[in-house]
Amino acid sequence: MSEPWTHTFTCTLTGSTDRVFSALTDPNQLRRWFAEHVEIDPRPGGAFRFWGRHTYGSPNRKGAGQRITRLEPDRALAFAWPVDNVDSEVTLELAPYVKDDLKDAGRTRLALRHAFTARPAVPYSAELVDDLWRLTLGNLEAHLRGGDGIVLPDFGDPTQEIRLSIVIDAPRPRVFRALVEPEALNRWIASAAEVDPRAGGRYTYAWKYPHGGRQVEGGPTKILDFVANERLVTDWTDWRGDATRPPTRVAWLLEDAGTGTKVTLIHGGFSRAADQGDYPFGWRDFLDSLKSVVEQVDTISADTHPR
């Protein structure tokens, strides 16, 4: 029998504690950013049911057995949630964000504790739970900021992918150079990019960071498909540095949009929908950075061309 196991996570959210608490407990708001169907009886012991295609493991009401175990307005919400046939309890505690001993009433520090009676018997269970909460809390932050960027996956669809687009006020050749010229890449996404611009060529952002007590080299390693000014497809390694997990694929597709360029990013090949984690929110930030760099006329050479 597996031992009890607990996942913890903290983040800072936009909005006061009462604003965040409302987003966590108001059914109408929850349906916008959390679950397709929600039923709440707001009292300890009351129902906190959520189900549907956007809920992991609970596609219908029959499987929605969640209930409230703790309710402190503007301070805490806890609920019991059976996950993969394992009893668990989620506790969300809220406090004003504090920096340099000063409280920021417009921001909230959320502390998550997800305690299981045993580790779920699914592959990469720790990563599954971590990714689920990264995705969920990313959607909560998007909701608190006004709703733009919310990503509600269909957990019943085995072919989930992230698809995002942005229009950049620059011609395709200029945008494409920002994807393949190391100096340009270093301005918006890479640390010390290396690029061999051809199918099969090396392509890396030189990302290195600590995770799980070791140094990880993340991001892409090689080009899978390359058509100048039209598309760039790369592999994408497991961000935790687990070489036993197959890489995913990231495609950058360019098309004319008036006098500018529409860039569509597709990140696919996930083993399961939850593996998206917080990638959708990170990719949105990177697309915004790409747009900002490309539209600064002096930052990318206008008279060079990818090989």
What does it look like?
It is a single chain. By secondary structure, the protein is of the alpha+beta class. The chain folds into 2 domains: about 5-145, Alpha-D-Glucose-1,6-Bisphosphate, Chain A, domain 4 (2-Layer Sandwich); about 160-300, 2-Layer Sandwich (Alpha-D-Glucose-1,6-Bisphosphate, Chain A, domain 4). Helices cover about 20% and strands about 35% of the residues. The chain has 6 helices and 16 strands. The protein has helices spanning about 15-25, 25-35, 125-145, 170-180, 180-190, 280-295; strands spanning about 5-15, 35-40, 50, 65-70, 75-80, 90-100, 100-115, 160-170, 195, 205, 205-210, 215-220, 225, 230-235, 250-255, 260-270.
List the helices and strands and how they pair.
Blueprint: E1 5-14, H1 17-25, H2 27-33, E2 37-40, E3 48-51, E4 67-72, E5 76-80, E6 88-99, E7 102-116, H3 125-144, E8 162-168, H4 172-180, H5 182-188, E9 194-195, E10 203-204, E11 207-211, E12 214-218, E13 223-227, E14 231-236, E15 248-257, E16 260-268, H6 279-294
Antiparallel strand pairs: 1-7, 2-3, 4-5, 5-6, 6-7, 8-16, 9-10, 11-12, 13-14, 14-15, 15-16
Helix pairs in contact: 4-5
